[in-house]
Amino acid sequence: MAQRYVRVQSQDGKIYYGLLQLSLNVEVLDAPPWLDGQPTDLILEPEKYKILAPCAPSKIVAVGKNYADHAAEMGTPVPAEPLIFFKPPTAVIASEMEIKYPQQSQRVDYEGELALVIGDRTSDCTPAQAQTKIWGYTIANDVTARDLQQKDSQWTRAKGFDTFCPLGPWIVRELNPGARLQTFVNDEFQPVQSATIDEMVFSPDVLVSYISQVMTLMPGDIVLTGTPMGVGPVKIGDRIRVEIEGIGRLENTVVPR
Fold first, then answer.
1. Residues 46-77: pLDDT tens digits?
2. 185-226 residue pLDDT tens
3. What is the rounded CA–CA span in Å between residue 108 and residue 10?
4. Is there a cis peptide before residue 169, judged by omega within 30 degrees of 0?
5. What's the farthest any 2 CA atoms get from each other in the chain?
6. How far apart are CA 158 and CA 236, in angstroms?
7. By C-alpha distance, which of 5, 85, 87, 82 is closest to 39?
């Protein structure tokens, strides 16, 4: 099993980065792992911490319509270059936290995605250089108020509500390019989304390079790489599970705001 890097809060309220052991103990690091955090003597037992989102990004840069079949189901062509937008850091929640359904919307959708964790200051880099800037990988759900996205001329409101960026549960350093992403609603056996991440139109290194030509990415920032076909609405009470082979599963329940 790949090493799992977590961000946790101890019973006394302190926040740590650490390595999750098979025993579910957390070996605490003295800094974020992408800043060369090293193991300490502090070990947190399972009942002594709660898992948070695995990083606290300064920004979340997301990519739209990065799977051809999803662009088709949205009734639009594949963009000629990456289509980027922001989600605010305040949208981030951890696995097992609640997605709050906003009163302003009548249609909220799930969007399971692979998330990239940036490990170094990144500006004006080539795709080859970008690959060295991607420190690790985690899972995201780019929750979207679809009716507001269609109503507004840009996507900030539809994508930006608090709790609209579930992230986690941990970060891994390496990922098979053919890893499968699947999304499940409630306890249904069949996934509502299923694709391999190498089906992306623009690969992770191309995305990071492209974004870095626009803005500087900082250590701990997140890039959401787009969602495959099969997006659909959620309702209050639904439990959404996004799985990526080699990482794990991200699970959240929808509640009233």
1. 999 999 999 999 999 999 999 888 878 877 88
2. 998 889 999 999 999 999 999 999 999 999 999 999 999 999
3. 33
4. yes
5. 55
6. 17
7. 5
Strands 232-234 and 108-110 come out as: antiparallel
Do residues 222 and 60 lie in contact, with contact meaning Cβ atoms separated by under 8 Å?
Answer: yes
Contact 28, 7 (CB under 8 A): no
In angstroms, rounded to a whole number, what is the distance separating the alpha carbons of residues 256 and 241?
Answer: 18
**119-153: string of b/e by CB count within 10 Å (b at 16+)?**
beebeebebeebeebbbbbbbbbbbbbbbbbeeee
Count Cα neighbours of 233 within 13 Å in the Cβ-side half-sphere.
9
C-alpha radius of gyration, the chain, whole number: 17
Q: Are 230 and 183 in contact (CB under 8 A)?
A: yes
**CA–CA separation, 157 vs 244, rounded Å?**
27
Amino acid at 247: I
Alpha-carbon distances, residue 208 vs 129, 134, 141 (angstroms): 9, 8, 19
pTM score of the predicted model? 0.96
Structure tokens at 144: 């979207």
